[in-house]
Amino acid sequence: MQKLKYALVGCGRVSPNHKNAYLANSDALELVGICDLDYDKAKALFCDIQAEIYTDYKKMISEQKPQVVAVATDSGSHFEVAMYAILNGCHVIVEKPITLSVKEALELNETAKKQGVIIVMCHQNRFNKPIQLMRKALEEGRFGKLLHGTIQVRWHRDKNYYSQADWRGTWDKDGGTLMNQCIHGIDLLRWMMGDEIDEIFAFTDRLNHDYIEAEDLGLALIRFKNGAYGVVEGTVNCYERDMEETLCVFGEKGMAKVGGRSVNLLQDWCFADKNEDTDSLKTQVDESPENVYGNGHKAVYRDAVSAIINGTQPYIDGMAGLRALETVLAIYRSAATGKPVKLPLDSCDCSEFKGRFDNK
Ligand SMILES: NC(=O)c1ccc[n+]([C@@H]2O[C@H](COP(=O)([O-])OP(=O)(O)OC[C@H]3O[C@@H](n4cnc5c(N)ncnc54)[C@H](O)[C@@H]3O)[C@@H](O)[C@H]2O)c1
């Protein structure tokens, strides 16, 4: 089988996960280029692998003609880079959030469809083994009627983290903790609870990080179209260290809890149809990844390769990226207006919330 030509744009914090995902799939991918505005960063990341290094992604795409481009630049530039790649006929693997605006996310999805290429989203926690177990139970109908679900992302990020790059915590290029850290959990909650949201009511605030523009705490209530409810609690205000990222789903005939630092440990499992031993399930699914990004990028890449080769839809597509983004933006809009917000949103852009906490 001929390998797919692959290139990476953005060689920062998350890029080692992309490198490892490429290495794990190098039977199907041929690395033709890596790009960062900072040449030395790109060189340092791939010092052990032969790769053409670029500081201009347009030049890289035109010279190397990759078939797959991974976009791991700051969130504010995903749209520009992904759109350019798509318009040049490349499939894209995009870091979360897909973009920072609903209109841009819709445009990316529409353009990819027209171009006959796919968007694969890095909401990689969907591939965590305990999450896959929960999803299987859901797809088998074991929860019965869904009643409510909760996501709690209780993490710690300090000045040291935010000072690593000037885009962090800004409305134009990042958003706050919900858009950056919690979007994975918000994606999982929406995906598990039926995907279709009717209404959201929320509070957000910046309580403990006066050196960033956006929120460090978000609290939201969601009503899903299927009649179930959701609760979101996301913060980077935990003292000293990350506490947990925990997802619970409660149904008429079962309940499950996946927690740990980033939804990698099965913590509760109880269903009417089968009496299973949680401890023995734990030995099959619990994971202990090196960091909160988890091991899922490898599976995201594997799925991308399979979707491209077989002409199928990816497991986590661009519309999933749009839904996670839309949920965060609806939370922002509700918190800013003090009113419930109905979905879907036709338009909403993170930069609309600029100045929200300036007078605090
Ligand atoms: N999936 C996850 O778990 C996960 C984890 C961390 C970060 N992320 C996402 O990944 C993205 C990158 O985050 P990070 O923490 O690695 O950021 P970072 O600031 O550490 O790295 C971003 C890199 O992109 C480069 N860059 C920016 N614009 C570019 C351009 N036009 N051409 C080439 N290079 C360009 C920068 O020079 C920088 O080296 C963000 O969108 C973030 O939300 C996802």
Which segments are poorly predicted (pLDDT under 50) over 5 or more consecutive residues?
Answer: none
State the shape: globular
- The side-by-side strand order for the widest beta sheet comes to 13-12-11-7-10-9-8-14
Number of helices: 11
Count of individual beta strands: 14
Would you give an account of this structure?
This protein is an alpha/beta fold and 360 residues long. The protein has 2 domains: 4-124 and 296-315, 3-Layer(aba) Sandwich (Rossmann fold); 126-290 and 323-353, Dihydrodipicolinate Reductase, domain 2 (2-Layer Sandwich). The chain contains 11 helices and 14 strands. It has helices at residues 15-24, 39-45, 57-64, 78-87, 102-115, 129-139, 159-162, 183-192, 278-285, 296-310, 318-337, and strands spanning 4-9, 29-35, 53-54, 68-71, 91-94, 119-121, 146-154, 197-205, 217-224, 229-235, 244-251, 254-259, 265-271, 341-342. α4 (78-87) packs parallel to α5, α5 runs antiparallel to α11 (318-337) and α8 packs across α11. The protein is globular. It binds nicotinamide-adenine-dinucleotide. Nicotinamide-adenine-dinucleotide binds next to loops.
